[in-house]
């Protein structure tokens, strides 16, 4: 299973990466929306872990591009704000599967990736 982590905080991305790699996932990391778009254009992903607040660029643009290029890719949004706590992210981005806090336990996030990634592999195009 291939996972793209789009996270500006390198330490946090590395924590998530280590947990996912322990489950034998192939993990790629992009710090900015531009790097994420480039990765999505070059490779297929089953799941994207995407921080809504990036240091550079727009997370929603990344999600839109992923929906266009890889419609079966599922997105797990993470955030440390309450901005989308009303669930509106799910009406704005059809590939959104979850919205969790950045402080979510890495093993819980890994379980979500495993769940949504297995569904991505079985979805018809």
UniProtKB/TrEMBL annotation:
Xref: InterPro entries: CheY-like_superfamily, Sig_transdc_resp-reg_receiver
Transmembrane segments: none
Pfam families listed in its UniProt record: Response_reg
Protein name: Response regulator receiver domain protein
Taxonomic source organism: Flavimaricola marinus
SUPFAM superfamilies: CheY-like
An individual GO BP term: phosphorelay signal transduction system
SMART domains registered for this protein in UniProt: REC
Domain Response regulatory: 2-117
């Amino acid at each position: 299973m291939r996972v793209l982590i789009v996270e500006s905080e390198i330490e946090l991305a590395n924590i998530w990466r280590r947990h996912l790699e322990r489950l034998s996932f192939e993990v790629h990391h992009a710090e900015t929306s531009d790097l994420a778009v480039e990765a999505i254009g070059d490779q297929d992903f089953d799941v994207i872990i995407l921080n809504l607040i990036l240091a550079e660029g727009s997370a929603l643009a990344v999600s839109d591009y992923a929906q266009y290029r890889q419609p079966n890719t599922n997105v797990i949004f993470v955030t440390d704000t309450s901005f989308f706590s009303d669930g509106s992210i799910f009406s704005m981005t059809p590939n959104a599967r979850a919205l969790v806090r950045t402080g979510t336990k890495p093993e819980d996030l890994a379980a979500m990736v495993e769940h949504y990634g297995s569904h991505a592999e079985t979805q018809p195009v």
